[in-house]
Amino acid sequence: MSIWEYANPTKFMRTTDRLLPWLVVGAVIGCVAGVVWGFLTPEDFRQGSTVKIVFLHVPAAMMAINIWVMMLIASLIWIIRRHHVSALAAKAAAPIGAVMTLIALATGAIWGQPMWGTWWEWDPRLTSFLILFLFYVGYIALWSAIEDPDSAADLTGVLCLVGSVFALLSRYAVLFWNQGLHQGASLSVAPGERMSAVYRYPLYLSMLGFFLLFLALLVIRTRTEIRRRRLAALQAREMRA
User: CB neighbours of 73 closer than 8 A, spacing ≥ 6?
Assistant: First the structure.
């Protein structure tokens, strides 16, 4: 069985019809259990109770970057192989990624205010994350502005390639520039920098929950886009007839 079989809309719809309930259940369990477990952890000896926002901030930031990477891969598949499901999946993922980026920015500001004494700082990672959010908004707007779906997929694919630079900067900005207030990776394996297990395990669960939530929302939105495309094709056929 080839993975390209799922580029067939009928095959995709049939497979995801069975998969979707499991994704929804897993997402609910993972998100609720991870966040609740995280907020029941003890206070950090340096950051106090404010550290608990990590169970929302880190999973949202992780998904914000990785969703753009997924959109890039889907866009490349569309450009190279012209599979419509991949283009529709990239389109469906964009609003989810925008919301995740907004959550990461908002929770980062809430976390940063008591730690840094300011809600916002033009830190390399914060700035690149803000630009990434603007790319998400631009990507969504470009899809809406172009009537022909194939042309929209081509142009948004190019935009996705350009925006990938900022997705990369968002992930590695702390390593590229030594200056800036933002801390390094929360899940670093470097000696002396690794997060305590009391925070690490609920964070893993929360990250899994956010990942499953993205998959569930992606499947729902992609299925909606396929139905919308089919409806548009039927309406165009009726107009010609």
Answer: none
Q: Is residue 1 part of a domain?
A: no
Q: Is 187 helix (H, G, I), strand (E, B) or coil?
A: coil
Q: State the Cα–Cα distance between residues 23 and 110, nearest whole angstrom.
A: 30
In the chain, what's the furthest Cα-to-Cα distance?
72
Both tokens assigned to 4: 């390209």
pLDDT digits (tens, 9 = 90+) for 148-187: 889 999 999 999 988 887 667 666 655 555 555 555 555 5
Instruction: Render the burial of 213-227: b for 16+ CB within 10 Å, e for the rest.
Output: bbbbbbbbbbbebbe
- In order of 20, 33, 60, 117, 169, the CA distances from 108 in angstroms are 31, 22, 10, 13, 17
- How do residues 79-91 score in pLDDT, each as one tens digit? 998 888 999 999 9
Alpha-carbon distance of 89 to 100, in angstroms, equals 17
Structural domain count of the chain: 1
Distance CA 44, CA 136 (A): 34
CA distance 161 to 17: 31
Residue 210 belongs to a domain: yes
Q: Is residue 65 part of a domain?
A: yes
Which structural domain range is residue 25 located in? 11-236
Calculate the average pLDDT of the chain.
83
